Amino acid sequence: TIEDNELIVSTAEALKKAINADEQTIYVKGQIDLTEEILANYNGTIIGADDTACLNTRTFVVKAADEAFHLSDKTINFKNITIKVPAEDGDFLKTGFVAAGTMNFDHCVLEGQVTLNGGATWTFDDCEFGGADSGAYASFVYAAKKVNFNRCSFSGVDRAAKVYGAGGAIDVEYNNCTFT
Fold it and tell me: Whole-model pTM?
């Protein structure tokens, strides 16, 4: 339930302003097309305010990595929101999330190839993956320390998931997930 005093945004500019103001909880209403990496260094929760809530972008850079590719200590939580990642010709590493700290997704819909490139811990609870182009993966774990998919569904794609241990071993678990 959204209280009267909760911050609700419906434009990229308003979202950027809320993030820069260090708002801990931000509600999104409608589709917001992100053209810049405004989530860098954000630490908080982004929640869909209604069924129209959608973030649409090619790449979510949660922490711009330094030259040594050190990971962020930030945590971002996404709840009840659709995240669309359009196809990117050529560089599959630039679709999805890059150099994140801890990322939690709860009851989210993720459309397109969602690449997890870097990061400490990723948790997906009750999420839906789909809508990736032919030949792409709905979920591509490229480099991360730990990824948990709990009660997630992967559907409508010819390639549901791929795990590639760039930079070392990755601990990935699929718990009670469905693949159709």
Answer: 0.86
